Request: fold
Amino acid sequence: MGNRLLEKYVLLKHRDIENIHNIDVYVANGGYEALKKAVKEMKPEEVTTEVKNSGLRGRGGAGFPAGVKWGFIPKDIFPKYVVVNADESEPGTFKDREIMESNPHQLIEGIALCAYAVGAETAYIYGRGEFKGLFEGLQQALDQAYAKGFLGKKILGSDFSLEMYLHLGAGAYICGEETALLNSLEGVLGQPRSRPPFPAVEGLYAKPTVINNVETLANVPPIIAHGAAWYRHFGTEKSPGTKIFCLSGRVNRPGNYELPLGTPIRTLIEEYGGGIIDGKAVKGILPAGASSTIMGPDRLDTPMDYEAMQAAGAMLGSASFIILDETINGVWAAEKNVKFFKHESCSKCSPCREGTHWLVSVYRKLGEGRGTKEDVELLSTIINQMEGNCFCLLGEFVVPGVRSSLNLYMDEYEALVRNKSPEEKSEQNLVHMLL
Reply:
């Protein structure tokens, strides 16, 4: 098992091969060979088995094994669907966008391989509303694939047919949750569904549906082309393969970096991100955008894989690393995350709807200098009431960010309530209420 750096990109191939977004260039460099291999030489279940053996885990955040998910699809219920989650609304996440813009045919081929494996003849790519311009280019790639016979009826002379469509949402973060995405795709309110039944059994239009992230499916063509054993040369035993890490915040070189899973956070920041702006020190690490525990600088040597991040009390998620330095106030950073989740809450359940509202209210009070020690304690009370009680993960994602900020930056919370007597605070609160 290796953790070697890449000699060539697996996903960001456009950085090695110019104009690979053009289908002729993609085909000239081995593109669609995996699809040819699958439909001409492999049974559908063999494709699923190869993906399962590769250990490919979902790159949208949950890290669930892709081949196992495909195996949940019933064999005797039709029609079946493949839905691609291209919503990518997590703060600090911009990896799927680069794949769709610059290496779209690898995604299209991956979708086709997934559809062949599970027996689907219709696939949808669901993108956030802000991707309108991007989807115009993606539609051109689809048109090219149809023209070359890689999509449509009787693909490559086989009995396999596949129609692929693009669908834009309206820019709601909650539609990145797979069942809310399905509702939006069906034209109803984008709110999460109760499970079970799970999408593999009753998904789009109550039919069996595979839902995978863009980056997940872009991994499939090289797996089928080169084999599961080749793929496992990268990464770790339980987290094999490469991963695109989105790096932003207070670093000199923000951007997408494709590295083997298990690469240390320090390597991402210092070697690839060029270190911290003005040589400042790392103060906090948000490894999964807004949806994560804030990690302290003592965690810089944590390997970036699913198991190691969990052992460190965090999560890898979509691997959107936002870096805070010593110039950033920890309370301010936590408040920004809370405001985001309040704005994006679908309001279906009261723990999320009311919890995010009250968190924002308390943070506003602290920021305006009207906060008390009891208000800081109230933050913990609110997140404790939210934890484990929200309908979907959106509300649950609020909890670790607030809790970790309280653990890491309590001195900054205390500074907001220091140097005022209780009488002064009471008077301020009264004036504010009257105003």
Observations:
- The CA atoms of residues 121 and 162 lie 4 Å apart.
- Confidence is low (pLDDT under 50) at residues 425-435.
